[in-house]
Amino acid sequence: MGLVDHKEIEAMVLAGAAGLLGYCMRTIQSGKRLRFLQAIVETTSAGLAGYLVHHLCEAMKIDHPWSPIVIGIFGWMGASGSVVILQKFVLKRLGIREKRHGRGRRSSDE
Question: Is 0.70 surpassed by the pTM of this model?
Fold first, then answer.
């Protein structure tokens, strides 16, 4: 088996496409102009989020048809939104508690 298998590639492509569409929709709805470099960054970072969510789905025993739905939704949210949610899963799994700091800001205990 290579570095990346076909299911991981499918997850990255799905999340990347969803991330690009989400970026385009949000940008157009806000009345702003689409920017090529921003679109590339949104697509690739959503693809990375899709890769991570694919493995999260496997770890949580979330199979087809739910896994592509979950991956697509995380991709649509974009990497910045996805990472906030994924961070909670990872910190909990590692046994690291989050502390609140003032006005809703959080950090992790070390």
Answer: yes
